[in-house]
Amino acid sequence: MSKTINLGVTDLSFHRIAASLVANTLEEIGFTVKRTYSPHEENFERLKAGDVDMLASAWLPSSHGIYKNEVEKAVPLVELGLHYKPYALWGVPDYVPEKEVSKIADLLKPTVVSKIKKDIQGINPGAGITRFSIQMMNVYGLNDAEYSFHTGTEEDCFSAFENAVEKKEWIIIPLWKPQFLHYKYKIRELKEPKGLLGSVDKAVLLLRKDKENMFTKTHLQKLDGLQFTNDIIAELDYKVSREGKNIDEVTKRWLKNHH
After folding, report:
1. Which of 19, 23, 78, 152 has the fewest C-beta atoms under 10 angstroms from its C-beta?
2. Rg of the chain taking only CA atoms, in angstroms
3. Where are the domains of the chain?
4. What letters, b where the CB count within 10 A reaches 16 and e where it falls short, cover 88-123?
5. pLDDT tens column, 12-53
């Protein structure tokens, strides 16, 4: 009889891709996997409470380090794999001239303020990019220059960008890598020398230490050997999110060809 693993998935498209790659691998080595989808912070709370045994994926140390520390007050965690190396960014479509907008401070130029959409659409409140963006708004004085940042769904954020690109409007997108928009669009990252967007993180699978005995050493090595890249995740994410392909079929095919 197969053992059941409860896998907590942060409910954003690229996290669902990484979780699908993990779930397919777990099923291949004989486990039954139950996936539960929750927002960032809630996913870590479920891991702490023991409602889930594993979490995909934790971005450490910048984005999710504070949540991991909270979990480890209750139970030690094991880090497995290197799903990709994520980082947060603010970007603009590449048709916005670099000589006019190359860094965050350029957003305050009167010529830029007059042309660019000043409504900056983010994603959910618990995301690292949201925390970072709110800080950026304050530190750079963007609120005083009539810019506004607000949270919403990931689809709110992505469709706002896609709609603006269709009209060749100047727009700022608070984003990250990996994300499917990078697969289709050329998005130029704006330089941010103050370090407010965090560092390059490592995205890993977290396992509660008290559940480690469910796995053999070979199982753990297999999970630890799951290594992807930002570009791989972005491409698989695009196939699912914009081409409408079945997520588990897409990730199974990738695993078959590469693992």
Report:
1. 152
2. 19
3. 4-85+201-258, 87-189
4. bbbbbbeebeeeebeebebbeeeebeeebeeebbbb
5. 899 999 999 999 999 999 999 999 999 989 999 999 999 999
